[in-house]
Amino acid sequence: MRNGLYECPSCGNLYKWKKSMLSHLRYQCKQPPRFECTYCPIKNYQKGHILRHLRVHHPHLSPLYFDRKFNTIYRL
Predict the structure, then answer these.
(1) Which member of 7, 52, 58, 60 has the lowest number of beta carbons within 10 Å of its beta carbon?
(2) How many domains are contained in the chain?
(3) What is the pTM of this model?
């Protein structure tokens, strides 16, 4: 803990909450983004962010996203 912040031991990112740092370490640190838009090159670590992207940027298309963990395309 440094200056009231938690530092990722792997990459040095700082977080206000220990839970946030542990989540980063578990799901994001030095890993490729898990979720991808099927219509453009946007990628993200959180499914909710890809779903929001689909609603905002591709509202006229069927909401499809790719999940790298299961190597599958999903439809909402």
Answers:
(1) 60
(2) 2
(3) 0.81
